[in-house]
Amino acid sequence: MKYQLLPRLSPEEFESLERSIIAHGVLVPVEYDEAGEIIDGHHRVEICESLGLVDWPRFVRKGLNEVDKRTLSRELNFARRHLTTAQKQAVIADQLRDTPSISSRAIAGMLGVDHKTVASVRTRMVDGGEIPHHDEVEGKDGVRQPSRKAIKTAFVPDRENVSEFLKGAKIIRAEKQKVSHAVRLAHMDMVRETGRATAPGKLQRQYPVGYADPPWKYAVRSEVTGREKSAENHYPTMTTDEIIALFRELDPFTENAVFFCWATNPMLLDALRLLEALGFTYVHHWVWDKEVAGTGYWGRDRHEILLIGRRGEVAAPLPGSQPETVHRERKGKHSTKPDFYAETIERLFPGVARLEMFCRSPRPGWDHWGFEASGSRAERDDAEHDSKVGPAPSDEAGAPKPSGPARKAVPA
Length: 412
Description:
- Helices cover about 35% and strands about 15% of the residues.
- The strands form 3 sheets. The chain has a 7-stranded mixed beta sheet. The protein has a 3-stranded mixed beta sheet with strand order 2-1-3.
- By secondary structure, it is α/β, with parallel strands linked by helices.
- It contains 11 helices and 12 strands.
């Protein structure tokens, strides 16, 4: 029990885990170090031994020091455990004792908590003399930085001059907005024209499995200031009617098909309308928890929804193979979705032709339709999203490939 650093499961949680192992076996491998010490999976091993089992999935971590092992144990267990506030603070405190020179944001990223929570525990421990204060801390990228940011000062005019000062600031802000708006429109126009010029033509076949992250066009309160962070700065967007018309023109799906379609909160009804327009019946959805909240008018969104639609006679996944409906993974670059979802679709529908519409990163085993992607994921990452065009990968069944490169696209 050297690395069992979190509290034991509650009786109810332990019984639930035992029932799962009896029904499905050990689904998550037990992690060991090179000496055979369990880093993660103490309860799984305890249940297996009580059931008389002698073999279960194992994974051996090599080359880790003691601090690395304890950190990994906390990182693997923290997010999936239902801990009280006091228990969470105790785990954070243990991690700070092990790595006091790591920044609060980096530790928060490891454990999946708010950095303010870690900072609060750190302050208490520093004030109590449990850990030393560090003038510099190491961030998630390994770069050392000051532990406290310098206070920025600003010019404050005399009271009688405040009104004139505010007038001047308003004029400067308005001029900057005009320039930014003009630059943004030019860039968005360039992105749109590039999409039209490079979008591929018709598909050469139909597919029983589809996956898409449509380039939804969002409404904003102001066209001048409201599109500073909009999707149009990254790829050409389309109205819902245009997306529906494109799908109907391409006619990508077989009579019996399943379609996985991404939707954000404001575009949920539009995504459901797309499914219905293409003859799909909504059957379920999965949720991506991005861990970090973004923007929104009614709430700060930190999740996206992957709708699942079925057309014709398509069987649901085999019992026991279904994924949990919520997957938690920190968001990356704009619009990029976790590999987890495409990999899960591959696992549930092996050996069949699959198509990703508006593809951003071509995957082996998938055909794709879109623009501005290299021939492989590694090449695209190395080139930092450059515009070199590579061949689309063939599917597992050796089906013909749609012509053209890939990414979110608009029709020519």
